[in-house]
Write a structure and sequence with these properties.
There is one protein chain. The strands form two sheets. The protein has a six-stranded mixed sheet, sandwiched between helices. Strands 2-1-4-5-6 form a five-stranded antiparallel sheet. A hairpin with a 2-residue loop joins β1 and β2. The longest helix is centred in the last third of the chain and has 16 residues. α3 crosses α4, α4 crosses α5 and α5 runs parallel beside α6. The protein has nine helices and eleven strands. By secondary structure, the protein is of the alpha/beta class.
């Protein structure tokens, strides 16, 4: 089943066209990595898919429910209540963690399930304890973000997203703010989520990681999906010259 279907997405900022006729479908349990140079539109696509940015035209649906459709060339978004329901289908993890600095780790994770989802507190605290253990943070529940390393903060952010029980997770460059040792920590967590069949879309510059974890790799450049396919096809045997040039540059820089 397609969890996410986007069709003919267009997005401009002023005169700058950032996304050009992007279409993509995501199946349940699929892990998709989005690669591409800076300014290729990767993060804007992710922000449009998660409704942090409005599209100029095109359609987005989750689990068969329309979040946005096009009418007369203009986007028409679903009602506020419908969008709230649709947004519950996914979680989003940012590159700079976006934790609440004045909340403890436990409160960062439990706040939304308690106040937004209105689930029983004892159930949420029990699940959060399990999540913290899974993230290797079982002794950090009473800590505040400033007391944690970047890698630990990112693991809290992932636990916070998982606490909402989403059907899929989006990651926007989850390791770009981390040094190599902490990056390895986060990639290990993402690999374990992939093993548990969590559907994920990961915007990343980690080529080796994308190769090892992805069912499908999407390469973007100039606001277009230039090439997509298995890691063996896109990373190891790219057909498009732009993909080849990007991968060659990345291998020289790594």
């Amino acid at each position: 089943m397609n969890l996410l279907e986007i069709r003919n997405i267009e997005k401009s900022f002023g005169d700058l066209k950032v996304l050009r006729d992007i279409s993509l479908s995501v199946d349940q349990t699929e892990v998709i990595s989005i690669l591409g140079p800076s300014g290729s539109g990767k993060s804007t696509l992710l922000r449009c898919m998660t409704m942090l940015e409005n599209v100029d035209s095109g359609s987005i649906s989750y689990c068969g429910e329309q979040a946005v459709t096009s009418s007369g060339g203009f986007p028409v978004y679903a009602s506020k209540n419908q969008l709230k329901k649709i947004k519950s289908y996914f979680g989003l993890v940012f590159q700079n963690f976006n934790l609440f600095p004045h909340y403890s780790v436990m409160k960062n994770i439990t706040d939304a399930p308690i106040h937004i989802q209105k689930r029983p507190k004892n159930e949420i605290y029990e699940e959060t304890g399990i999540l913290l253990k899974k993230m290797g943070l079982e002794d950090k529940g009473d800590y505040y973000p400033y007391q944690l390393s970047g890698g630990q903060q990112q693991r809290v952010a992932i636990a916070r997203a998982l606490a909402m029980k989403p059907k899929m997770l989006f990651f926007d460059e989850p390791t770009s703010a981390l040094d190599p040792e902490l990056t390895a920590e986060i990639l290990k967590v993402l690999r374990s989520l992939a093993d548990e069949k969590m559907t994920m879309i990961i915007v990343t510059h980690e080529i080796d990681f994308a190769r090892s974890i992805s069912d499908r790799v999407v390469f973007m450049d100039g606001g277009l999906i230039v090439e997509q396919g298995s890691p063996a096809e896109v990373i190891d045997n790219p057909k498009n010259e732009r993909t080849k040039a990007f991968l060659k540059k990345m291998s020289v820089n790594s």
